Amino acid sequence: MVNLKHDLGMKLKYNLIALSFFGGLLVACNPMEDIYNEIDSEGITITKTEEEYVLVKADYESIAKAAEADAQTDEEKSLAKRVASDLALNSFASADKYVPAILANLYGSWGKGSTVGVTYNYQEDVSETLKKYSVVSAYTLNGDDYKTIWENNFLSPSHAPNVEIPKILAARMEGAKEGDFCLADYMYDLNDPVEGIDYLNENFNSCTAKQPIEIAEWTQVCIKGTEKWSANVYKGDGSAELSAYKAAGEVENYLITKPVKIESADALLTFDIVFGHYNGDAFSVLISDKYNAGGAFDVSTWTDITDYFAYPTPMESGYTDKTNVGTYSLKSYNGKNIYIAFGYRGAKDGVTTTIQLDNVKVTTSQPSQSKPYNTLFQFTSGKWGAYIGNDVVVVTPADYDAMGDPGKNDNFSSSIKATDYLPVFLAQKLPYAKEGDTQVVLYKYYDGKTTVAMADEYLLDTTWKLNNNIVRHEKETFLHNGEKWLFDPTITVSMTVDDYQYLVKWVAENKPAYLDKDYPDTGEWWFGASSHYKNFNIQMYKRTGNDPEGLVDKEDEQKAEAYLMKQIQVACGLVLSHNYPDAPTQMNGVDLYYKMQAVVYDGTSYSYEFRYKSLGGGQFEIAGDPVKL
């Protein structure tokens, strides 16, 4: 419904007249709406009412950003982030604080007295267990971290995660407080490395980030295009990378190792690889014992050994985990000098797959079979240690891989929703759980900028369901005070059994002659309240027959009914004074009102609403006539 207020002045009236003649409004389907649209475009402030606006995903995302900017503590930051992932407001990112900005953007020309009923989702208080994991830091061990332990970029039984990671967290997570949690991701090999002879061991950590690979005696040969293998270095962990994505045309390049003298029949070639944004085969591995460094490069004289290795399952988007491809025996090259060439073939309008090459080795030792793992750590008694509690299930990298799409980056996101996967995951993880059981799950979530640790609670009904305690707030009123939008703090409550019983007690103490003679413990006739029937009775024969002071007009039924309804208004005001002795006069700079809903019986039951203005100190003033719902 749309209302124009008379106090807008003559300017608005003349504008309406002009618009009606010159704006072609007489033929519009909704002429008044067209008028308002033109008023809005002219910047005229008007008073309007929108019965309901429902917050949409974009609104929650905007509120999440604003709340995150306001957040001062880790807990507040966590609550702010959850607005976007849960599509629900919460105790920190509340409607009264953040909805006004949404309305100001939507209804810029609406002025004083305008109202909008806003419907939104709200996350009420969660379980103590879930609160415990509301803030969990996330940390991934990097090349620099592994260097503080040993020369390998992984952990193993001799360098166990429970021993080594607490040392790293102590250095990296400064300012940790008692009880803090951290979910640590790392590479781990179930077996310790076996000592052997390394004839070649290149991890590219010494290369300069984003610059072409330059290593003594290594060469690059560009057959087509000018793109070269370049260093991708993150926190000390390097790799050689190449893609045709930004190429001008075709790309054919070979990264050739220095000459390697094979002096054992046990020598093996191995390396690690990552595929990114895969859209076709671009990678090859060649070997030669005849190549002359610096001489002409002829692919036909090299042996292609690409298919002897096992590669990660490619993905169209994102990157695979770093994977060891296995080994290739160099027994037939024992006593010879060999060269290894890593080839890339692609094109800007063809195959553009990103290849990351790492840990190239010619060795007599077995290669690492390290895989990604994670462990939850807690800071207690001044130090970090692996968490030994059993009140949380942590989703591991292997779990993400088993789920399919989440394994692309070992996390969930707005497009890969946790709720689409975790119910099945829990059913498999906890096959003996019983209906009514709850379980907190900790997982990684990409929020569009960073990957964070998040926790949710699930409830086993017939299946596992998200137990986020989200409720829907319907049409909460926001009003414009002439300067800005504010939450209208009108509080709606309903009469309860205890409230009706309170009135019976009040009558027993103040008007005992009006207690129900047959049921004095549960009924009275001063207000007509009954805690047994949970209503107010205004049947005329009942009220006139139980009126020792003769206050109900027996001759004029209309006057009698008005009197009885007035008595109910007084009664509900007494209940409010009893239940809300500390109610303030205003909230958010707006007068505070209460709406009391009650059942009135006159032979048929009707629901009525009675409105009151809070005067402070438990005093309430009747504000308007009763409204039948």
General description of the model:
By secondary structure, the protein is α+β, with helices and mostly antiparallel strands. 23% of the residues lie in helices and 31% in strands. The protein has 6 domains: 1-44, no CATH class; 47-125 and 469-488, no CATH class; 135-193 and 370-389, no CATH class; 198-367, Jelly Rolls; 399-467, no CATH class; 491-628, no CATH class. It has 13 helices and 35 strands. Helix 1 packs across helix 2 (31-42) and helix 3 runs antiparallel to helix 4 (74-86).
Write a concise keyword list for the protein shown above:
alpha+beta; 6 domains; seven-stranded antiparallel beta sheet; seven-stranded mixed beta sheet; 13 helices; 35 strands; 31% strand; elongated
SSE topology:
Layout: H1 10-22, H2 31-42, E1 49-54, H3 57-70, H4 74-86, H5 95-106, E2 115-123, H6 128-132, E3 136-140, H7 143-147, H8 161-172, E4 181-188, E5 198-202, E6 219-224, E7 230-234, E8 237-242, E9 250-256, E10 260-261, E11 268-276, E12 283-288, E13 303-304, E14 323-324, E15 328-329, E16 337-347, E17 354-363, E18 371-380, E19 383-386, E20 392-394, H9 397-403, E21 412-413, H10 422-429, E22 438-446, E23 451-460, E24 464-466, E25 470-480, E26 485-487, E27 491-494, H11 497-510, E28 529-530, E29 535-537, H12 540-544, H13 557-579, E30 586-587, E31 590-591, E32 593-601, E33 605-616, E34 619-622, E35 627-628
Parallel strand pairs: 1-2, 3-4, 20-22, 21-22, 27-32, 29-32
Antiparallel strand pairs: 2-25, 4-18, 5-17, 6-9, 7-8, 8-17, 9-16, 10-16, 11-14, 11-15, 11-17, 12-13, 12-16, 18-19, 22-23, 23-24, 25-26, 28-29, 30-31, 32-33, 33-34, 33-35
